[in-house]
Amino acid sequence: APTAEPTEPRRQPATEPAWPEPSEAGETSADPVARPPTSGDVATFVDAYEARYGDDHLPVAVDTDGDGVNEVVFGRVDGDAVAIDVGAWNGSAYEVAFSDTGGPAESLDDLFVRDYNDVPGLEVVTLQSVGASGQSLSVWGIREGRYVRQRAKGGCWTGSHTFGIVGATIELGRITASCDGSPLPRPAWPSDVYEWRGGRWRFAGTQQPDA
After folding, report:
1. Which of 33, 42, 167, 192 would staple 155 via disulfide (CB 3.0–4.6 Å)?
2. Is the distance from CB of 194 to CB of 203 less than 8 angstroms?
3. What is the spatial distance between Cα 206 and Cα 191, in angstroms, rounded to a whole number?
């Protein structure tokens, strides 16, 4: 089901380690690069992240927006939901440029940062689980240089950027996600199929388990 809209990042007490606040509007790139980042800069940023959140997270360093400079993307569990943070290079250091939450989660199973819609910019996808069999995925992408939630249009996940309840898969241009609310046993639950068209994940039909 749809999750709450992103809230303002929590500010830490002055006694805790300093941590750069997310920039307004979630831009993936800041000012023009004064110098390119090094592997040491990435390591310093990851160390600062672990000092705040611990080491139970998944980091990926990759150029998400095609400007030639790597961003650092983190996935983690925050309370009862998955969360992502995108760190951007500001010319001298990495700082958090975008933070948001995804679907309900007891564990983060995987974090993917790659192209799923064949348009400029990479998607950020989390694969998360609740219990032994409940699995979903959440999707974000870049629009006009900023990360946004990629929401479904139509079907059982309309309006949500999280797809699936007991399973979901994503490939180039296509998401297949199980629907909830069925009176049938779980193995017989249908899945809705979404295809990337017109800048949205649009409902393309319902698929039965034996299809």
Report:
1. 192
2. yes
3. 6
Cβ neighbours for 50, distance < 8 A, ≥ 6 positions apart: 57
Classify burial at 153, counting beta carbons within 10 Å of its beta carbon; exposed 0-12, middle 13-18, buried 19 or more: middle
For residue 36, the tally of other CB atoms under 10 A from its CB is 11
Structure tokens at 4: 């709450």
DSSP sequence for 108-122: EEEEEEE-SSSSSS-
**Rounded CA separation 11/98 (Å):** 14
Written as six digits, the tokens of 106 are 């007891």
C-alpha span between 70 and 150 (Å, rounded): 22
Strand partners, 95: 88
Distance, CA of 64 to CA of 66 (rounded, Å):
6
**pLDDT, averaged in runs of 10, over the chain (211 residues):** 42 38 49 81 96 89 96 96 97 97 96 97 97 89 95 97 96 96 81 97 92 53
DSSP 46: H
DSSP 2: P
- Of 106, 113, 161, the residue nearest 137 (C-alpha): 161
